[in-house]
Design brief:
The chain is an alpha/beta fold and about 450 residues long. Helix content is about 40%, strand content about 20%. The chain folds into two domains: about 240 residues, Putative sugar-binding, N-terminal domain (Rossmann fold, 3-Layer(aba) Sandwich), CATH 3.40.50; about 200 residues, Four-carbon acid sugar kinase, nucleotide binding domain (Molybdenum Cofactor Biosythetic Enzyme, Chain A), CATH 3.40.980.20.
């Protein structure tokens, strides 16, 4: 069994470990990854940073590539479970991506929508998706300029996002009672399996979930029907454990601080924290970190970047600004401080969500390019924000893949850039913008500094 995950940013591997994460997927890279001992393969497609048209093209091309690679390693489509991993606060191309996967790698009997992410406080109760008990349409995430929505009821959300192609009253819901019974008895499991067998014609299904055991029961039922039924999943990270029958593993902080790189003389190299996420929680976490005497902030003025792209001297202005920021980062490191490089808070918003997304990508690339130039001197990097992280790994470091080592805190993964020649094995903490509480970024920094 293989589980192939189309991950719309690099943070979807938040609950698993010891598997490859591909940033590029030429045939040989895919073949090598499919032959990896792990049952999991993540393809970091980064579609959340793209327009619908660009995301469709990316998913279509990726599906075609994986289809060819499966044939080369003698896997049939029935040997593989496909997951479109999306944000647990419902941002992203949550209807479009499964639609394209179904067209190329299907047909599927059903597409399951499972946004529950327990480590982040996301649950689904009576078909309504919640963040710490609050319906998500009442949170800041529902006001996202690109991916906003008006309802937390997943059947209505599907109808809204599909522009009526999916009719709410036709959406099937799997209840927590059904999943609990399946986990408690053979009779209950048979009831769940019979429910899954009845699905056909790419039926849309939403899944209630408040506990990992419920998703584990669903995963068991799905695995029992492999080769009999074909299902597609649009889910957050928690269901991946249930599908792969891989419980969440927690490690001691010492394991992760030990990944920090050293100089040839054995001294620990300095770390760096990069924050591109613009959500309110990221602001709060950044504020807590900057209170530390051992950390020094360096702000990138977003308006300054926006202005530069509106002039005829864009390249010269950006070149000068890049050199100024590099000099300041090196100065902070020379003072034995941890540089905290962050974009100005609040971001910029244009009338067009496409223009806002384009600016966000330009800022992420600009930050990634700067940090990449000092990366050989660093012992670790904490990168906060999914798009920020993906751009840094793919464009800044020009990586083909990274190796997932595990979670240093619930939902917070560490990967190693084994293929980066200038700093082989560089540990990078991939930090979602919407994860944790006010202390989580500080806690991650303390772990990597060996202070816990």
């Amino acid at each position: 069994m293989k589980v192939v995950i189309f991950d719309d940013d690099p943070t979807g591997s938040q609950t698993v470990c010891d598997c490859p994460l591909l940033l590029r997927w030429d045939q040989q890279a895919l073949i090598n990854a499919l032959n990896h001992s792990s049952s999991l393969l993540f393809l970091l497609v980064n579609t959340r940073s793209m327009s619908a048209e660009a995301a469709e093209n990316r998913i279509r091309q990726t599906c075609q590539s994986i289809n060819h690679a499966l044939k080369d390693v003698c896997f049939s489509l029935e040997d593989v479970f496909f997951v479109s991993r999306g944000d647990s606060t419902l941002r992203g191309h949550g209807v479009l991506e499964p639609k394209i996967i179904n067209e190329i790698l299907g047909p599927f009997d059903a597409t399951f929508h499972i946004p529950a992410f327990f480590e982040g406080g996301r649950t689904t109760v009576n078909g309504v998706h919640l963040l710490h008990g609050c319906p998500v349409h009442k949170t800041e995430f529902a006001r996202d300029q690109t991916f906003g929505y008006s309802t937390s009821a997943l059947d209505l959300w599907l109808e809204e996002k599909s522009k009526g192609a999916i009719v709410a009253e036709n959406v099937v819901r799997l209840t927590t009672q059904l999943l609990d019974e399946a986990g408690q008895s053979a009779v209950g499991m048979k009831k769940l399996v019979d429910c899954l067998i009845a699905l056909s014609g790419n039926q849309s299904v939403v899944v209630d979930a408040e506990l990992p055991s419920q998703l584990a029961a669903l995963g068991q039922a799905v695995r029992s029907l492999q080769r009999q039924k074909r299902f597609l999943f649009r889910s957050a990270a928690s269901f991946i454990n249930g599908l792969a029958n891989s419980p969440v593993q927690f490690h001691h902080p010492e394991k992760f601080s030990a990944f920090r790189l050293k100089t040839k003389s054995g001294q620990l190299k300095p770390g760096l924290v990069m924050v591109g996420s613009y959500v309110a929680l990221a602001d709060q976490q950044l504020k807590m970190l900057l209170r530390q005497d051992s950390c020094t902030g360096l702000e990138l003025q977003v308006q300054e970047i926006a202005n530069a792209f509106e002039t005829r001297s864009t390249q010269r202005i950006l070149f000068d600004l890049e050199n100024q920021l590099l000099e300041k980062l090196r100065h902070i490191i020379a003072l034995n401080k941890t540089p905290v490089f962050y974009s100005s808070r609040g971001g910029l918003h244009y009338e067009s969500s496409k223009d806002t997304t384009n600016l966000g990508n330009k800022i992420a690339y600009f930050m990634a390019n700067i940090v990449a130039k000092i990366t050989p001197t660093l012992g670790y990097i904490i990168s906060k924000g999914g798009i920020t992280t993906n751009v840094f790994l793919e464009k800044g470091l020009n990586l083909d893949s990274v190796q997932l080592k595990g979670q240093l805190l619930p939902g917070l993964s560490l990967v190693c850039a084994d293929g980066y020649l200038l700093a082989r094995g560089l540990p990078i903490v991939t930090f979602p913008g919407n994860l944790g509480d006010q202390q989580t970024l500080l806690s991650a920094w303390r772990i990597m500094e060996g202070l816990n």
